[in-house]
Amino acid sequence: MSKTLFKGSVMLNPTPVVLITSKNKEDKVNVFTVGWISTVCTKPPMIAMGIRPERLSYDYIKETMECVVNLPSRDMVKIVDYCGVRSGKIEDKIKHFNLELEPGENITTPSLKKAPIALECKVTNITKLGTHDMFLCEVVGVKVEDSLINANGKIEFNRANLITYCHGEYFGINLKALGSFGYSVAKKKNKNKSIKENNNKSLKRKERKY
Question: Which residue has the higher pLDDT, 176 or 95?
Answer without folding.
Answer: 95
